[in-house]
Amino acid sequence: MKIKAVLAAAVATTIIAGPVAAQDKSDWPQSFTIGTASQGGTYFAYGSGWANYMAETLGISGGAEITGGPMQNMALVHTGDLNFGLTTMGPARESLEGNSPLAPGMAMDNVCAMFPMYQTPFSVTTLSSSGITSIADIPDGAKIGFGPAGSTSDTYFPKMMETLGVNFERRNGSWADLGTQLQDGLIDVVAFAAGIPIPAVSQLEVQTDVNIIGMTEEELKKITEAFPVAEFTIPASTYQSLDEPSTVVSMWNFAIANCDVSESLVYEMVKTTMENNDKMVSIHKAARTSVPENYTKNNVLPWHPGAARWFNENGYEIPADRIK
Fold first, then answer.
1. Could you say which residues form the signal peptide (predicted)?
2. Which string of b and e fits 281-304 if b means at least 16 CB within 10 Å?
C-alpha cells in the first residue's frame, strides 16, 4: 500500500493546461501535482500559484494538493504519489536519513532538489490583549498552536520552546484554523513557521491587534546552537503590526521532484521559474529569494538531473556526485 493511502486525506486543486508548446513531451506525464501544506500558509499560496504558472506556460495540466507539509511531501514525492512538492531542509534531512515519523526506517532517497524557494522564519504571534510581548512572557500551561501535525513548525518549534524553558499545551491545526482559534481566545499563542508574509497573520492583523514576537540575543544563541537554523530578520514592512524589524531564526525551503520525473520537464520548469523571478514574486512575495544564486543553500538533497542541467548551463556549478 502506498504511503498516500495511510496519510491524512488531501484535497486537490486542479488547473487546466494552456496551449501545448512546440517541444518534445513524449516522456512527460499527462498531468502533474505538487504537494503544498494547509490553507492559510505560504506553501499553499506559493505552490498553487507555481502550479498554475507551469500549467499555463508549459502546456501541461497541473494542480496543487493540500498536505501536511514538508515531511508528508517528502514521503509522497519519494513514493511517486506526487510528482513534485515543497519541503524544508530540516524535515528533508530527517526523511532522507530514515527518521521521518510518517515512515520510520524508510530512507526517502528518491527525492531530488529542483530550485531554492525562500527561508522559513520561526515567529510567535499573540493577541495584543494577552499582554504577551516576549517568549519569556508566555505563561506556564499556555495553549500554543504549532501548525499541522508533522509540519516544519510542529517538528521543530515545540523543541525550541522547551529549550527556552516554555511549558505549554500543544495544539495542531491548519494555519487558518489556528488563527481563528487565537482570535476567539481558544489558544494563547501561534508559533508560525512559514514564508513571509504569512497569509494567516496578515488576515489576523486586519481583524484584531496582534503582537509579532522576536527573539532576544540570548534566545537566538540557544536556538542556533541546538537546531539547524540561522538568524533571520523579518523586515518591519512585512506586517503592519511591526514597528521595527523582528529578529528570529529561519530554515531554507526547496522545491522537490521525484527523481524519476522526466528530465526535460524538470529542466523546463526550473528554467521558467529561475528566469522569471518577477512573475514568481507576483505569486508570493517570499519568492524574492527564489533566485538561482541560492542554489548553494541545498546541502541535503541530491539534484534532479533536469535541474542540475539548467544550473550548470547558466554558470551555477553542481558537481556530478551531487546529481541523482
1. 1-22
2. eebbbbbebbebebbebbebbbbb
